[in-house]
Amino acid sequence: MAQEDYYALLGVEKTADADTLKKAYRKKAVQYHPDKNPGNKEAEEMFKKVSHAYEVLTDTDKRAAYDRYGPAAFEGGGGAPRGPGGGGAGGFGGFHDPADIFREVFGQGGGGGGIFEQMFGGGGGGGGGHDGADLRYDMEITLEDAARGLEKEISFRKAMTCARCDGQGAEPGAKRTTCPTCKGSGQVRRSGGIITFTQTCPSCAGAGQRVDKVCTACRGEGRVPQTTKLTVKIPPGVDTGSRLRSSGNGEAGLAGGSAGDLYIVLTVKDHELFERQGDDLYCEVPVKFTLAALGGSIEVPTLFGKASLKIPAATQSGTTFRLREKGMPSLRGGRQGDQLVRVQVEVPSSLTAEQRKILEDFARVSGDAAEPTSKGFFEKAKKFF
To answer: pTM for this structure?
Structure first.
């Protein structure tokens, strides 16, 4: 372990701050945790290494010693850093057990359970139940719906509490006995190599009890799959990737566990006229070349109705105009976005004899016939002629 690069072990730069170190350690600790890699000695060793590296780099004095002397700073016994001459440079005391570091970082106190169940598939203890799983529902809406908001009824299948047994998994009147495997605790203890932790009892699924007759409707699970309907309220301003949470509308829990949540993930369909960038909308509007030359006003579409747009005389193709607060509402309640209108000057594809004569007269009078390109462009291009 002494030759390892602690920063490389955690996958961070040498300038990493405390938050970055903690995030990196959490990721590595989950990856190499013995419970996720049963019987894998290499993973267990890596778990020890990343825990040791995290402890060193999050301690100001230890990190300073490591940055100065490298891993050799901790070879002097008892965790004391060594000075450049090989002697102790001040004792830090021994290093902690990797399991203690893991519990501290993940907010787990005392014994087993807690973070292990959440991360590695266990359930509630002490005769309690499992919490229900969270569900995801993908919904596609139009840009108009995203701008105005809407209420929409959705239909989906999920595990719901069995009505026959009220989620208990037993036939009405069934005899209950204490589970012999977990002695009623709902949990059993397992050794994960360097640490011991608890997990849901496989015999009673965490209930702490067994029954002589399981429910015939749910076959003892306490839940049955059913189709349910829910009215979802979509607020104005949502965008593709917005996620709405509906608490308690995920799968039902087991043996008294809490229901999971439902997450509605939104996709906003592409629009035929508007392109969205943040809260702003962009669109292109074709205008006649006579309007661009002479100026005037036009009506342009917005998601909230028509709006009048003034086109100044001599407007060039590609000019962009801004309509204040005609874009998307802010999901956070701030100022509404703008709509940006880019005009494209249209040239007629065919002319009548009268129209051609008028344009030829204009070209002659304006000098366009003799000089069809702008003077600025001609000055830049002279060297090519």
So the answer is: 0.57
